[in-house]
Amino acid sequence: MIRALELVKKYSDTGHHYLPMSEEIPVDGVIRTVNKEIIVEKDEKGQERINRMNYEISVLQALREKLRCKEIWVAGANRYRNPDDDLPTDFEERREENYKALKQPLDAEAFIATLKQAMKDGLEKLDTGLQKKPKVRITEKGNGWISLSPLEPQAEPVNLSRIKSEMLRRWPMTSLLDILKEADLRVGFTEKFKTVAVREALGRDTLQKRLILSLYGLGTNTGLNRVSAGEHGESYKDLLYVRRKFIHKDNLRNAVSEVVNAIFRVTLTGW
User: Fold this and answer.
1) Alpha helices in the chain (DSSP H)
2) How does pLDDT run across 57-76, given as a tens digit for each residue?
3) Domain ranges in the chain?
4) If we measure between CA atoms, which residue out of 235, 251, 249, 196 comes closest to residue 37?
5) Which candidate in 16, 51, 71, 142 could, as Cys together with 66 as Cys, close a disulfide (CB 3.0–4.6 Å)?
């Protein structure tokens, strides 16, 4: 991770589209697997190249996560300080009292033996439980993947059916997709969806339409494939592209915040 940050700093002021292949570029433990296809590209000869801008974004996202759990710490910082500084300074002097508060034995061997027994009991419980669960099985795939058969659908929550009934009473000819579209026309939450690619080639009107369709398909569990079958001129490939390039956790969080704030502005004017 530190090597990756040094690499980002080294080429931050350059206009390079790709990082030089002569560099040793850290990938494992730095970029997420889901982002690999937009970072590691192949040229006409099939040689892999690293997209510099996408790599930088992925490195900074990884840095944020590692700072939060102090896997990486910053000298002189307070919030992101050395995790050893979080421990009591008199821990050794009050060792027996502290261990008692933590409900842990002073003897390391006793701690290890208890941990081993807990793991053994857990595995035995899993082994016994699997025999009673016909819908769960361990397959031959990989090192023994766990396969779970689809569960029976749960009953629809009472409040959800009440909301549907009230919406049908108030707006009998209005669909959920219409409501999503109207919310965006009023609030503009799709503006919060920024691409993770180097540049944004789609026109905003086209992108807005594909974002709303994709969010509808994902949010209702209808799926992009079924949504693409509608009479709107957008293919499954188009919606999948938008899903991969635009719909990510941070973008969704920003869009939800925009909608929630708009609701507060209307219903809680005092705020």
Assistant:
1) 2-10, 36-39, 52-68, 95-102, 108-131, 158-170, 176-187, 204-219, 224-227, 236-245, 249-267
2) 889 988 998 999 899 999 88
3) 2-84, 173-267
4) 196
5) 71
